[in-house]
Design a protein that fits this description.
The complex is a heterodimer of chains A (about 550) and B (about 210). Chain A contains 18 helices and no strands. Helices cover about 65% and strands about 0% of the residues of chain A. Chain A has about 550 residues and is mainly alpha-helical. Chain B is an all-alpha fold. Chain B has a single domain, classed as Cytochrome c oxidase, subunit III, four-helix bundle (Four Helix Bundle (Hemerythrin (Met), subunit A), Up-down Bundle). Chain B is built from six helices and no strands. The radius of gyration of chain B is 20 Å and the shape is elongated. The chains are: A mainly alpha (about 550), B mainly alpha (about 210). The interface between A and B is large, with 39 and 32 residues.
Chain lengths: ~550, ~210
């Protein structure tokens, strides 16, 4: 009996396709489900964006029956894009590549990882279920400031706002559990030799992102439960007439939501920091400086939240303005890292690199127009105008979304074993790049001309007509650009060129295993003596002890 | 279980020294304990949000407590007994940890049972306390004083409830003999959580009843 119990069951039980996907704890399958789920919500959020842009294409109320439905559309657009697309999309990329990059068999807590994922579609369904309730979905903007979001307010007549709150708490919990999982994985599961200062930049950015998630997300959870208590149990946290303070919500909300901006962009920075060196045939310029800049952005990110509240009159303006300008310093350091990685490199203009350059240029504009808003007097003029909409889209779309696509084109061969079509990828980029700038650049002009955010209609003699029409045309171009991408994915899955283990001649460990990688990722790992173990292995730098010593000494990274 | 014991001793032999803090032969802190510490970090931030709301609301409302509820929160009432019970449970929880680190399974089960019961008594007393406050007209909806009080203590109570569930799980597993001097990460993690819940209560008690 005892001998029977000891013999291992070597062959895993076979599970059918769908059942396997629904019950998997494999970080690669979960990562892919994150990506698909997030992309579906990207399309849903995009449809809402098109509705908003169609309404704004010309003065007058055309598309929506009334302003309230318009409010629902832009509120759900923003909520879906932020909480159900960008954040989980990047978490999904991280989920797929982080264990591979650190030579681990899986995440530290695979079942919690599955739980984190499955909360997302549930949260998304709850959020969208608001449309089925009397009074419709949440309509108080993605920020849901009280008193707009309080019970009985004009903006939130029904339970849609409560569904919004519950959905966000669920999605936030998913983020927190994911963040804990990433941190334990990164701290505890690295392969032998992979010291902290040999980790790929993508892993570093996921590390800092996870710290932000674990420290900041619970604070918005507290804001949301207080709002829920206000709405449903007669609480008075945010109701001034009952002794509450409305600005309290803004403080607690932005204490999360500003760091959340870095949650939404740091992993994308990580992606392009993997892509740029590979397609420039150079190591990343200033590897350590980049890491310290990332940590600096994370730390400073906690001290700038009130720059979203300059005009409330309830914040200490010089401090928050100064800190906001300061955060441009580590961001500028990264710009130098990226530009000098490209400088005199052997550039191969494959799709991932093109999207990474799209990130670089568009994020630069988003950084510069953000610096204007950091200046208090200018912010007083531009607050709540389309300038802010332009800024945030240059950062989150021009930055994060271009980064996301760089990552998808870069790792698709690893995930599926097949290459995406380069020509379709370039078509995708060109249409998206032009459409993006056509949509969001005019919003700078609209902002300066004083067009406020979150309005369904405007006067025809305000001088906003042409720019709005242009932005709407651009919006539809972005939508069109998704068609070659989706087509590319479907065609390449069937007929794409076979990728092989390492199609790009990559640097990091995910390229040392097969494409797609087997369950538990690695049969054996190359020696890790620098931050580019696969590069070292390819060029024989690990072959003998003598060479290995040169490699380790030459890089000076053996800390 | 008897078959398992020699195997455990054997594996203890080649581990690099016994690490009492983690109860694990692996180098450094173990995955579940690090995970729990990070989870507690996030919980600290959650309560920070609530505490910030409390102080902000309190600063905006004078007098505090409002005249209708003057002296309603008596630190020397039943609440002090509940407080002592919860603090005592933190000690018994730690005794349980020390027991299992020594490999004393009986002592572990005894101490964790006491902790489990004390936790339940605390929850019952809190419910009792709520009924008294309700009868005196203080509810979530009775202005900022009631809103903050019930939100803070309510979320703390929910965390105690979660802790009691966790204690129940490790009690069950302990009675089944699943823990040993070497393998008891779950115990360490739950005890960390229980201490955290206790510390939050000490802060809450000090702020709500004494300050």
């Amino acid at each position: 009996m005892a001998t029977h119990a000891l013999s291992p069951a070597a062959v895993p039980a076979y599970r059918g396709g769908l059942y396997e996907w629904l019950t998997t704890t494999d970080h690669k399958k979960i990562g892919i489900m994150y990506l698909i789920n997030s992309f579906v919500f990207f399309l849903i959020g995009g449809i809402f964006a098109l509705l908003v842009r169609t309404e704004l294409a010309a003065p007058g109320i055309q598309l929506f029956t009334n302003e309230h439905v318009y409010n629902e559309a832009f509120s759900i657009h923003a909520t879906v894009m932020i909480f159900l697309f960008i954040i989980p999309m990047l978490a999904g990329l991280g989920n797929y590549v982080v264990p591979l990059m650190i030579g681990a068999p899986d995440m530290a807590f695979p079942r919690i990882n599955a739980l984190s994922f499955w909360m997302l579609p549930l949260g998304g369904i709850l959020l969208l279920a608001g449309f089925l309730t009397p009074g419709g979905a949440a309509a108080a903007g993605w920020t849901s400031y009280p008193p707009l979001s309080e019970r009985g307010a004009l903006a939130s007549p029904g339970p849609g706002q409560d569904l919004w709150i519950v959905a966000l708490i669920l999605i936030g919990t998913s983020s927190i559990l994911g963040g804990i999982n990433f941190l334990v994985t990164i701290f505890k599961m690295r392969a032998p030799g992979l010291t902290l200062f040999r980790m790929p930049i993508m892993v570093w950015t996921m590390l800092v992102t996870s710290v932000l998630v674990v420290m900041a997300t619970p604070v918005i959870t507290s804001a949301l439960v207080m709002l829920f208590i206000d709405r449903n149990y007669g609480g008075s946290f945010f109701l001034p007439d009952k002794g509450g303070t409305a600005v309290l919500y803004q403080n607690v909300f932005w204490f999360y939501s500003h760091p959340a901006v870095y949650v939404m962009v740091l992993p994308a920075m990580g992606v392009i920091s993997e892509v740029l060196p590979v397609f420039s045939r150079k190591p990343l310029f200033g590897y350590k400086a980049f890491i310290f800049a990332t940590a600096g952005i994370g730390a400073l990110g906690f001290s700038v939240w009130a720059h979203h509240m300059f005009t409330t009159g309830a914040v200490f303006l010089p401090f928050f303005s100064l800190m906001t300008f300061l955060i441009a310093v580590p961001t500028g350091v990264k710009m130098f890292n990226w530009v000098f990685t490209l400088f005199r490199g052997q550039l191969t203009f494959s799709t991932p690199l093109i999207f990474a350059i799209g990130f670089l240029t568009m994020f630069l504009i988003g950084g510069i127009n953000g610096a204007f808003s950091a200046s208090v007097p200018i912010d007083f003029a531009l607050q709540d105008t389309y300038w802010v909409v332009a800024h945030l889209h240059y950062v989150l779309f021009g930055g994060s979304v271009f980064g996301v696509f760089a990552g998808i084109y870069y790792w698709f061969p690893k995930m599926t074993g097949r290459m995406l079509s380069e020509s379709l990828g370039k078509v995708h980029f060109v249409i998206m790049f032009i459409g993006f700038n056509l949509t969001f650049f005019p919003m700078h002009m609209l902002g300066i001309k004083g067009m406020p955010r979150r309005i369904a209609d405007y006067a025809s003699d305000a001088g906003w007509n042409d720019w709005n029409l242009l932005a709407t045309i651009g919006g539809f171009m972005i939508a069109v650009s998704m068609l070659p991408f989706i087509w590319n994915v479907f065609v390449s899955l069937r007929n794409g060129k076979i990728a092989g283990d390492d199609p790009w001649e990559g640097n990091t460990l995910e390229w040392a295993t097969s494409s797609p990688p087997p369950a538990y990722n690695f049969d054996r790992l190359p020696d890790i003596r620098s931050e580019r173990p696969v590069f070292d292995a390819r060029h024989g730098l690990n072959a003998g002890h003598g060479h290995a010593a040169i490699a380790a000494g030459g890089h000076g990274e053996a800390s | 279980m008897t078959a398992e014991a020699p195997a455990l001793t054997a594996s203890a032999g080649h581990g690099e020294g016994h690490a009492p803090a983690s109860g694990h032969a692996q180098r450094g802190i173990s995955n579940p304990i690090l995970g729990m510490l990070l989870f507690i970090t996030s919980e600290v931030m959650f309560f920070s949000g609530l505490f910030a709301a409390y102080f902000s609301t309190r600063a905006a409302n004078a007098p505090w407590p409002p005249d209708v509820f003057k002296d309603i929160l008596d630190p020397l009432g039943p609440i002090i007994i509940a407080t002592i019970i919860l603090i005592a449970s933190s000690f018994t929880c730690q005794f349980a940890v020390w027991s299992i680190r020594r490999g004393d399974r009986k002592g572990f089960v005894r101490n964790i049972s006491i902790t489990f019961v004390l936790g339940i008594i605390f929850l019952v007393m809190q419910v009792y306390d709520y009924t008294i406050l309700f009868s005196e007209g203080m509810t979530l909806g009775s202005g900022p004083f009631g809103t903050t009080y019930f939100t803070l203590t309510g979320f703390h109570g929910a965390h105690v409830f979660g802790g009691v569930l966790m204690l129940g799980v490790i009690l069950y597993r302990g009675m089944a003999g699943q823990f040993s001097a070497k393998h008891h990460d779950a115990v360490e993690a739950v005890s960390l959580y229980w201490h955290f819940v206790d510390i939050v209560w000490i802060l809450l008690f000090s702020i709500l009843y004494l300050l």
